[in-house]
Amino acid sequence: MKKIFEVIKPGLSTSIQDLGRMGYQKYGIPTSGAMDVFAHRVANLLVGNQEEEATLEIMLMGPQLKVLQDTVVAIGGADLSATIDDEPLNSWKSFRVYAGQILTFGKPVNGTYAYLAVSGGFFAEEVMGSKSTYAQANIGGLEGRVLQKGDYLLSADADWKSIRAGRYLKNTDLPNYEHHRPIRVITGPDIFAFSDKTYQQFYQESYRITEQSNRMGYRLDGKALSHTDRADIISDAVLPGTIQVPANGQPIVLLSDRQTTGGYARIATVITTDIPLLVQKKIGSEIQFLSVSLERAQADYLQQQRYLRMLRTALQQHI
Fold first, then answer.
1. Boundary residue ending a domain (175, 195, 226)
2. With contact defined as beta carbons under 8 Å apart, do 106 and 80 qualify?
3. Strand bridging mode 286-287 / 2-9
4. Chain-centre distance for alpha carbon 299
5. Do 243 and 111 belong to one domain?
6. CATH number assigned to the domain comprising residue 234
7. Half-sphere exposure of 273 (CA within 13 A, CB side)
8. CA angle at residue 67 from 175 to 102, to 5 degrees?
């Protein structure tokens, strides 16, 4: 292991994340992991890593980092005005950085979460098979917390010189976080908790992402949804994208740091391929939902997996 960055400024909320802590929800342990899994995976591929390697998840106001070792890095996800020694950097592209340079994230342009990948991946002690930070329980990442000034970030001793800088996504492949299309969902399991009229309202109305939103879930505000009887159910499983409706009628979309079970009726579930579009929306954004079939959701997921396999193969051929 080697020190790769020194944290000069930690940013608003910067943490080490990977694809999450799988297999422990039955013990009450949340999965955590990257909010935007697609951006995390692509950033890793651009620097020659396996997709599950740990990255830095950077929310809105990013950190300032001093480079301590020459390496190759890439930024995926939100455009947070990244610069190296005050020279602008493009997202979705790998580039070389050299010892002594200063990597800075500035004003958010679009999106909320950016992912900084480094050749070899960021080092952290694994907890239950994952490096992901779950700050509420102080596990994973760097001492189970977000970055602080003076921290040192470590990386594996990867052969970064063999990784070609300048790898990038084509413009036609770049996610459009400013696209205002509806967030697609499938119907939730608690269909008898809501009337047809309530479902119609759910799909017709707009909802604002409130200031109470975080990695656990996005709390929405709009015209209250009513239940046929009561909001409570016997606690049952929840997933990334589960939309609960508590007694106040305001939906909550559960995300990476969600609890493992929930006791509120579930009206819908955001499909996997649309979760990045949702989490990259800024606080105050208005969103709408669109119902799609389970078959449509599965087809889009498989299409995304095929794309990632093609990208991985193409990049491996152009190391």
1. 175
2. yes
3. unpaired
4. 21
5. no
6. 2.40.100.10
7. 19
8. 75
Quote the DSSP letter at residue 158: -
Average pLDDT per 10 consecutive residues for the chain, totaling 319 residues? 95 97 94 98 95 97 96 96 95 95 95 96 95 95 96 81 79 89 97 96 97 97 96 94 97 97 97 97 97 98 96 78
If we measure between CA atoms, which residue out of 25, 47, 88, 10 comes closest to residue 258? 25
Tokens of 213: 């939103």
- The CA distance from 67 to 45, in Å, is 21
Q: What is the DSSP letter of 27?
A: G
**What is residue 159's predicted lDDT score, i.e. its pLDDT?**
64
31 contact partners, CB below 8 Å, separation of at least 6: 20, 21, 22, 24, 25, 132, 240, 256
Return the exposure string of 225-261: e unless at least 16 CB atoms fall within 10 Å of the residue's CB, then b: bebeeebeeeeeebebbbbbbbeeebbbbbbbbbeee
* Residue 217: exposure state from Cβ atoms within 10 A (0-12, 13-18, ≥19): buried
Q: Are the beta carbons of 278 and 287 closer than 8 angstroms? A: yes
CB 222 within 8 A of CB 206: yes
pLDDT digits (tens, 9 = 90+) for 179-200: 889 999 999 999 999 999 999 9
Residues 133 and 223 placed together within one structural domain of the fold: no
Q: Is 203 helix (H, G, I), strand (E, B) or coil?
A: helix
Is 314 domain-assigned?
no
Q: CA–CA separation, 120 vs 102, rounded Å?
A: 20
What dihedral do alpha carbons 269, 79, 216, 12 form, nearest 10°? -170
